[in-house]
Amino acid sequence: MMDELYLPDQGDGSYRNPVLCCDYSDPDVIRVGDTYYMTASSFNYVPGLPILTSADLVNWRLVNYALPNIPEPGYEIPRHACGVWAPAIRWHDGFFYIYYGMPDEGIYMVRAADACGQWDAPKLVRAGKGLIDPCPFWDDDGRAYVIHAYANSRIGFKSRIGIFPMSADGTHAIGEDKFLFDGTANHPTIEGPKVYKQDGWYYIFAPAGGVATGWQTVLRSRRIDGEYEDRIVLRQGNSRVNGPHQGAWVTAADGSDWFIHFQSRGLYGRVTHLQPMAWQADGWPYIGIPDETPVPPDAIAVGEECAEAAPIANAADCGIAVETYRKPKAPECEPSGEIGDDDFSGALGLQWQFMGNWQPDFYEVGGGKLRLYARKLPDGGNRLWQCPQTLTQKIACPAFFATTTLDAVHLQAGEQAGVGFVGGQYAYAAVRRMESGVSLVFVTSEGKEHTESAMETVLIQDAPVTFRVTLLPTSSSTAVVSFEYAQDGEFHPIGQPFEPARHTWVGARLALFCMPMNGDDDHGGWAEFGAVRVEAIETL
Description:
7-stranded antiparallel sheet, 1% helix, Tachylectin-2, Chain A, 8-stranded antiparallel sheet, mainly beta, globular, 45% strand, Jelly Rolls
């Protein structure tokens, strides 16, 4: 049985935040009929552009991906923190559209008549470095636009929102890019714009102030090209929800309004929250609940990417995030959440993503086994950080242990296979086959180059090994991971407890891998993994 690892639905008509305790960064959500659809950033991990569905905005299920691989050159090597950034999903003229930015390449679009089916190949809408966070908008007069942000790391500036016109079919830009709003003074690092229209007003929902310490801004104008008024509508205040960052306004079938956004949680990545939203008499949205306790700026925690504290100038018009709240009105549905288990009885579970573009000869699955092949790494790589055929899954609950059995009998000399935890730095336990026999090693990485060091080596029998990886939290954004192995039915620790950390933009991940130890060699061995079982651990 495959159990959900975290359930936001409390079974009494209420929910708890986060509604997805999982790294779905930069979520965007729409409703089509009675179904809500979500997508999120996927960076270098593939398949990319996850598609999740829900009937009530609380219980979500991963059902598909819109991007099998990243078709641009160079992504056969894991390009960590690059790739697919901050998408927007829209329904227009009988099709689902997803627009996403690739900071080194430009703005792209994919389209499908059925979000749960096959999506068209990506189309480059506008080429250019530093163009990120695109959101399409089709106006009442038939004109179409893309509103977007800028990546300082690629283009040399940030804190601005841009706009350009595009063709009515949404496939390509038809005019120049221009600045729409400059947030440098009052909304530094403004980004992630989502565009809507109501009662003759154009609204742009956009976070500012930095991922971990920022706030939600709303811009509005009577013209799509401005000028725009601005107001802060959601901030941390005295809540425990830092950020709160980038998301989407959704109107439910009953007419109630909601806001989906993420919270940055360190190694856990960017988890998804749901907030109530209402409209004030002056035509501005109000998100969350009132904050009765003013908090000075210096009391807001300094974040990972930015240390800009939220201003409190319009605190009366600005809510704070809820931790629990009543569910949106919707037909009763089965509580659901993320699944980590995979019995390998058929296709790979949707929770798995490769670390770089995948090829069919990377793996085989079926009959309760996953076979990973030790394919030569691109460009002579010899570290796990460089291994595209590494299979990963996100952390989906605060504490858990994961078990699997590895049969390494078909490894060739100079190959290794094992389990790991990858993030800004990583650790793994692996069976290595050498000419002299097999051994079990515990390896950690360090530095920007992710230099690997073997911390412990154990001589073992040439027989299947069961691994157990345990993650236990030390705070809301940190944890300790330990590795154990068994060949005689009793688990033994290997290595030292490891403190994983997020990498740029992404949380840490559980990993399975098989690879040559010398990247210049073309090996032909493989390893077989048995069913993966991920079980949540109850914590106080």
